[in-house]
Amino acid sequence: MTTVDLNSDMGESFGVYKMGDDAAMLKIVSTANVACGFHAGDPLIMYETVATAKANGVAIGAHPSFRDLWGFGRRPIHGERPDDVMKEVIYQIGALQGIASAAGHRVTHVKTHGSLGNLAEGDEGLAMAVARATKAVDAGLILMVTPGNQLERAGERLGLRMVREVYADRTYDDNGYLTSRKLPGAVIHDAKAATARVIQMVQTRTITAVSGKKLPVNIDTICVHGDNPAAVDMAHAIRAGLEAAGVTVSPFAQTIN
């Protein structure tokens, strides 16, 4: 029987500003990537997200980003020294670890957010900064990566455990990179279409690019973005579709070697 993880980015509210329906999503997904305060989130929201995840049996990981509250971490920031990025990622992982310890939960992994993740996919220096930060905090942490990019190679060089992620609600180009959000159709909002797409990816171990090209991939976890207005309905449909197809949904932290 095939087993796969279903993850979502959460804790992305800030103060009185609400983003996503985390309470509902945490009843569906098996893993949550928790914002650490640089693009969203604050100590109260982090704690609430972690505690709710624990109550629902959902694994948690740190979701670090560039320091960009104004742009939700999605604005490209060029010229940052990799050593500085490493220290900022260490800071964010450590913040979530403290919150998790207080809430009786455990941080299992690291997944980069937004532009930090996008740039690290193609920039060896940034990729090594993220991988080094992860290993420096806890060499047992799992690094979540997109297959075939610099971040995956950095994790391999440092001997980190890794999981390979694909997106349910985003499209891909012929090189296996996410298409720009500025392009029409880059974000998928139709739950039925996303479910069929995910089942096809898991069963065939391929991604279909916007051109129709088939790209072979290893798939350990599937992401549904929590800030998508259709996120809860989409996550529910995807989990139901996977289980109907004989796929078990379980936190990767319980199954990865």
Map the helices and strands.
Blueprint: E1 3-10, H1 22-25, E2 31-35, H2 43-55, E3 59-63, H3 82-102, E4 107-110, H4 114-122, H5 124-137, E5 142-145, H6 150-157, E6 161-167, H7 191-204, E7 206-208, E8 214-216, E9 221-223, H8 231-244, E10 248-249
Parallel strand pairs: 1-2, 1-9, 1-10, 2-3, 3-4, 4-5, 5-6, 6-9
Antiparallel strand pairs: 7-8
Written overview of the protein:
By secondary structure, the protein is α/β, with parallel strands linked by helices. It has one domain (3-254): Glycoside hydrolase/deacetylase (TIM Barrel, Alpha-Beta Barrel). 38% of the residues lie in helices and 17% in strands. It contains eight helices and ten strands. The two termini are 18 Å apart. The mean pLDDT is 94.
What distance separates the N and C termini?
Answer: 18 Å
Rg over CA atoms? 17 Å
Structural class: alpha/beta
**Mean of pLDDT:** 94
Low-pLDDT stretches: none
Number of strands: 10
CATH-assigned homologous superfamily: Glycoside hydrolase/deacetylase
Give, in spatial order, the strands making up the sheet with the most strands.
1-2-3-4-5-6-9
CATH topology heading: TIM Barrel
Number of helices: 8
Give the SSE order as H and E letters. Answer: EHEHEHEHHEHEHEEEHE
Share of residues in strands: 15-25%
- Helix coverage percent: 25-40%
| Integer tally of domains | 1
The CATH class name reads Alpha Beta
Largest sheet: 7 strands, parallel, barrel
Quickly give the CATH architecture.
Alpha-Beta Barrel
